[in-house]
Amino acid sequence: MILPIVAYGDPVLRKETRDIDENYPELGTLIDNMFETMYNAYGVGLAAPQIGLPVRLFVIDASPFAEDEELEDEEREQLKGFKKVFINARILEETGEEWAFNEGCLSIPNIREDVSREEKIKIEYFDENFVKHTDEYDGLVARVIQHEYDHIEGILFTDKLSALKKRLLKGKLANISKGKVSVDYKMRFPEAKKGR
């Protein structure tokens, strides 16, 4: 089932998220719905707060990046089959040089900006079967994970921009929260809710 994606300005995107356990109601269905919602919006990652749930869960399928001819073969290979569920994730380390990459977000449509992040991460998480993992990632895979991880920490990619960039985007962000934006996927807008 395709769920509406919560737009910028909704308080759930800033809420502190909580851990879940294997008894979380209909977890398998929720994960399936999150992947379906993400694919419908042509995303590569989706976090639970983006569908209105303040829990530590996100899904990623980075395989669309594998089509990028400019990437090295090794990285394209890593991206090709990278589809994962992250439950109760904790980033243990972020290391390496910071590098900029143009990011966007399904909750902040039609805005893309360069964001600097460290190149390597070490992360601890549970998969959909509640098997615990501690893995290390780098490059684009690490970046997609960092972006989605920020969502479960109440952080948006626009928070990482300079004060000037934030000021320049203020009007566009306000319009998104009011529903004054054109998207080809289902969204839920905070301002529209207030007006009912």
UniProtKB/TrEMBL annotation:
Annotated gene: def
Residues the record lists as binding Fe cation: C105, H147, H151
UniProt name for this protein: Peptide deformylase
Pfam families attached to this UniProt entry: Pep_deformylase (PF01327)
Active site: E148
Lineage: Bacteria, Pseudomonadati, Bacteroidota, Flavobacteriia, Flavobacteriales
UniProt xrefs under CDD domains: Pep_deformylase
Cofactor: Fe(2+)
Enzyme class: hydrolase
Entry's transmembrane regions: none
Record-stated family: Belongs to the polypeptide deformylase family.
Alphabetized Gene3D superfamilies for the sequence: Peptide deformylase
GO biological process, one term: translation
Provenance organism: Sinomicrobium pectinilyticum
Cofactor, how bound (note): Binds 1 Fe(2+) ion.
